[in-house]
Write a structure and sequence with these properties.
GO terms for molecular function: DNA-binding transcription factor activity; transcription cis-regulatory region binding. Residues 31-50 bind DNA. Residues 8-68 form the HTH tetR-type domain. This is TetR family transcriptional regulator. It is a single chain. The protein is an all-alpha fold and 229 residues long. It folds into 2 domains: 2-63, Orthogonal Bundle (Arc Repressor Mutant, subunit A); 76-219, Tetracycline Repressor, domain 2. The chain contains 12 helices and no strands. The chain has helices at 2-25, 32-39, 43-49, 53-63, 76-93, 95-104, 107-113, 116-134, 144-166, 171-182, 189-192, 201-217. α8 (116-134) crosses α9. The chain is elongated and about 60 Å long. The protein starts with a helix and ends in a 12-residue tail after the last helix.
Length: 229
């Protein structure tokens, strides 16, 4: 048990170090040597968990889905808002989430790692929107698949602009503004008036999600949870 816990801690240290390097340098410029230095582990320990730089980057990408659980909301559109706000909050504070965004974007990254990260978010967004439609929260003309594409692409654009222009310091506020602009085009008025898009909600949802993840981790190690297929 002690050995297993040590291996989990080592893997976590490697992933955090790799995430910071990938986020700062990009995939091509990142080196195993710098990851080793930041993680404070031996080359043998790193290669035991990750046999190559690509495997290491894929580990970072998979890890972005760990450590956070969003509880279902009575309003599925509020759930959509909370997903976006919490992701913005975590992206600013979690190197794995931040690095995953950089590793997911760009045509060359798609060639190396595939597009499963993007399609996973699209599918999750579409699922929530379909549930919102079933609950009567969407205007009659709304197509959940098309709206999921627009919301996901717009969120990515906001993240890129915020990163480039403000180092993501205003990301929660910009994501809040995004929802305020887009939600009136899909939500029925009775639901729209009850949605909370305040940037301050981001921290609350993120804290709740991390607490729920920690509680779930008592039943199994969340560090070993793979990304959704």
């Amino acid at each position: 048990m002690v050995r297993q816990e040590r291996a989990i801690r080592t893997r976590r240290a490697i992933l955090n170090a790799a995430a910071s390097v990938f986020d700062e340098r990009g995939y091509e410029a990142a080196t195993i040597g710098e990851v080793l230095t930041r993680a404070g582990v031996t080359k043998g320990a790193l290669y035991f968990h990750f046999p190559s730089k690509q495997a290491l980057a894929e580990g970072v990408l998979a890890e972005q889905f760990s450590g956070f659980v969003l509880a279902p909301r009575a309003s599925k559109l509020q759930e959509l808002v909370d997903m976006g706000l919490a992701l913005a909050y975590r992206m600013r504070r979690n190197p794995v989430v931040s690095a995953s965004a950089r590793l997911s974007l760009g045509q060359e990254m798609g060639v190396i790692f595939g597009t499963w990260t993007i399609t996973t978010w699209l599918e999750a967004t579409e699922k929530v929107l379909r549930e919102a439609r079933e609950q009567g929260e969407l205007l009659p003309h709304v197509d959940p698949a098309e709206s999921a594409w627009v919301f996901s692409a717009a969120w990515t654009g906001v993240q890129v602009y915020s990163h480039t222009l403000a180092g993501r310091e205003d990301l929660e506020r910009r994501v809040s503004a995004l929802f305020e602009h887009l939600l009136p085009s899909i939500a029925v008025p009775a639901v729209l008036g009850k949605l909370v898009t305040d940037p301050a909600r981001a921290a609350e949802v993120a804290a709740e999600g991390e607490r729920l993840a920690a509680e779930a981790g008592e039943l199994g190690d969340l560090d070993e949870v793979a990304a959704p297929a």
